[in-house]
Design goal:
The chain is 34% helix and 19% strand.
């Protein structure tokens, strides 16, 4: 391999732009734009509309500190929203504990600090570096414990937990709602990597209508009593052998008997275990053309994802032999009545 045929990364300190046009533009950014932008981020440009950017980060830092100190006693501030922009009731006297400006204002700091970083590489400036360090401290104080930074959206959520008042979601600008709900989902142990924009839209709609919703990772959303809550299903029961008589598997009673019973599953006699379903489980039901995935069979019978993790799968040699309300695999069907066991499954409440 000829290394000359391939590009390789360079240390930025080894790069100098000597082109007259771009050199002039770089100097303009370093000497004029960066100082001006810093003044704009701090609302110090005469006759310009306030940005509220750095002010909001300072408010977010104080709010994060208060949330941790007060816990459930912390009261979220109320806002007057006007489209994508939150404005103070009295422009000359903004509330020191509220967020103002456009909902996307946070990103202006990111653009400024990136320009500062590039500038300092070739033009060390102790005063500018000191300003940048102080600004970074302000922004870091506004970060949530999980590292997430979304000043305005984070400020609207309770300090911890995975529940939020529906009114809090519905009173926020539409552009903020998915960001709020994304932050809420990030508090779950499974995270939010499988969530999409459609899921956040459905959660926001749930705040309107109430009810329940199944989400990725087994997450369940429930809107009841004016509160939206995200929860995870209980852990699946451990696999266990089935013995003659009554067995308990999570929310189910499983009775094994040699006596025929109405509605019972009939299988070849022999040892059985019970466990939850697995993604690679497949069954061949009587009359079918071949094996089908158990996930699809459960779905066809209307067994929702939250129920599947505790749904009893009867196995022989760790392969599905029969599944409640789905049927019996052809290989597990009894050959004759004299070598048959019967399985009766009911919920713990007798249903």
């Amino acid at each position: 391999m000829n290394r000359k045929d391939f590009s390789s990364p360079l240390d930025l300190k080894q790069v100098q732009i000597t082109d007259e046009f771009w050199g002039r533009e770089q100097e303009l950014v370093r000497q004029e734009v960066i100082p001006y932008q810093w003044e704009a981020l701090n609302d110090r440009v005469p006759d310009a509309a306030p940005s509220y950017c750095m002010r909001n980060f300072k408010v977010a830092g104080k709010m994060m500190h208060r949330k941790k100190a007060e816990g459930e006693g912390f009261v979220e501030p109320a806002y007057t929203f006007r489209g994508f922009e939150a404005l103070p009731e009295g422009p000359k006297n903004p509330d020191p504990d509220k967020f103002y400006g456009f909902v996307f204002q946070d990103s202006d700091f990111s653009k400024w600090i990136e320009a500062v970083g590039y500038s300092l590489i070739n033009h060390p400036d102790p005063e500018l570096e000191k300003t940048a360090d102080e600004a970074i401290d302000i922004v870091c104080a506004a970060q949530a414990e999980n590292g997430y930074l979304d000043g305005e959206a984070a400020a609207l959520l309770p300090p911890d937990g995975t529940s939020v008042p529906c009114e809090t979601v519905l009173s926020a600008p539409p552009v903020l709602r998915p960001r709020m709900l994304r932050l809420l989902a990030a508090r779950l142990p499974v995270g939010k990597k499988d969530f999409t924009a459609a899921h956040y839209q459905a959660l926001a709609q749930l705040c309107h209508t109430g009810g329940a919703l199944s989400l990725p990772g087994g997450t369940q959303a429930l809107c009841r009593g004016g509160t939206l809550s995200l929860t995870l299903p209980p852990a699946p029961p451990e696999p266990q052998p089935l013995r003659e008589g009554r067995n308990t598997f999570g929310p189910w009673h499983i009775t094994v008997t040699h006596t025929p019973a109405p509605g019972a599953l009939a299988l070849q006699d022999g040892p059985l275990t019970v466990r939850s379903w697995r993604r690679d489980d497949r069954m061949t039901l009587p009359g079918s053309r071949g094996p089908r995935s158990l996930k699809r069979l459960l779905s066809d019978r209307g067994i929702a994802p939250p129920q599947r993790d505790t749904w009893p799968v009867l196995c022989r040699d760790d392969r599905p032999a029969a599944v409640w309300q789905v049927g019996t695999d052809t290989k597990a069907l009894p050959a004759d009545a004299g070598h048959t066991i019967y399985i009766i499954i009911t919920q713990n409440n007798g249903g």
